[in-house]
Design a protein that fits this description.
299 residues; alpha/beta; Arc Repressor Mutant, subunit A; D-Maltodextrin-Binding Protein, domain 2; 2 domains; two-stranded antiparallel ribbon; 41% helix; 21% strand; LysR_HTH_N; LysR_subst-bd; transcription regulation; DNA-binding transcription factor activity
């Protein structure tokens, strides 16, 4: 049934597609770039369709190549996982997750105890580098949690929740805000369009003239720094209802005029198609969905 399948060429194609580089695929497979190129040419001849567009300094998958990659990557991943279950004295399941420092600190880590209790055999490693990870080129990352306005058409995804931005502060600062213009705490985001004009939008909706009054503005590079400043009584922060939830539940922060909020973006958990069937990834997706539901912000 499978005797005619060119398995060596398919493995070369999967590596080159994931890395989008014949040279990188050759390094991964311990062969020459010429050998990878020959294998892929042979596969294209066998199929009768082109799989890559050869550009001056890179390669890009064709529509047919995208279709084959999605199917092949998932199938090879499932085979690798099945083989691993047969090995004696195998290590416990492991999982590498990439997300932002703020989401990890303010939402994920406080809840991870419940994941470890439910799945003691899974070892989780957090990667909180702010650079966006290309899942198709970095196979060391199992899944990511991203905050974005964009759709991810080529990835398997689970939408966790949308968010709203509102104003929060310590109980003392919130009480004083109705008497005098407060110090405003803001975040200087790497992706400015996601936070652009946030205070302006909130003040316009609330009818507050703080930006034209004597209010001072303090900026931080990360949301968790801004919230720590608000908890310490340094002013009022414009913050995500998702990321502020633990601080509000513990009474460290309270909302100022909670009926006034502005739109944010959305959080999604994403992986390369096929990897969602990997048992640790599947378990984490299920746990995330339940935690989002319990938080009251699930979509």
């Amino acid at each position: 049934m499978f005797a005619a399948l060119p398995l060596t060429a398919l493995r070369a194609f999967e590596s080159a597609s994931r890395l989008l580089s014949f040279k990188a695929a050759a390094h991964e497979l311990s062969v020459s770039p010429t050998a990878v190129s020959h294998q892929i040419r042979a596969l294209e001849t066998w199929l009768g369709v082109p799989l890559f567009e050869r550009l001056p300094r890179q390669v890009r998958l064709t529509a047919g190549g995208e279709r084959l990659f999605h199917s092949l990557h998932g199938a090879l991943l499932e085979v690798a996982q099945s083989v691993d279950t047969l090995r004696p004295q195998r290590s416990a399941g492991s999982l590498t997750l990439s997300t932002t420092p703020a989401f990890a600190t303010l939402w994920l880590v406080p809840r991870l105890g419940r994941f470890y209790a439910a799945h003691p055999g899974i070892s989780l490693r957090l990667d909180t580098n702010c650079d966006v990870v290309d899942l198709r080129q970095d196979a060391s990352i199992d899944l990511v949690i991203r905050y974005s306005l964009d759709d991810y058409l080529n990835l398997y995804g689970l939408c966790l929740f949308d968010e709203r931005f509102a104003v929060y502060g310590s109980p003392e600062q919130v009480a004083l805000a109705s008497e005098r213009p407060p110090t405003l705490i803001s975040v200087r985001w790497h992706n400015s369009k996601l936070y652009a004009l946030g205070w302006q939008a909130w003040c316009a909706k609330a009818g507050e003239d703080w930006l034209q009054s004597d209010s001072s503005m303090r900026e931080y590079d990360e949301e968790h720094y801004a919230l720590q400043a608000a908890i310490a009584g340094q002013g009022l922060a414009l913050a995500s209802n998702i990321l502020v939830s633990e601080s509000v539940a513990s009474g460290l922060l309270v909302p100022y005029r909670p009926q006034v909020s502005v739109d944010g973006a959305g959080y999604s958990a994403l992986c390369v198609p096929g990897r969602e069937r990997h048992p640790p990834v599947r378990a984490f997706f299920q746990w995330l969905q339940e935690e989002a539901r319990l938080s009251g912000h699930a979509l």
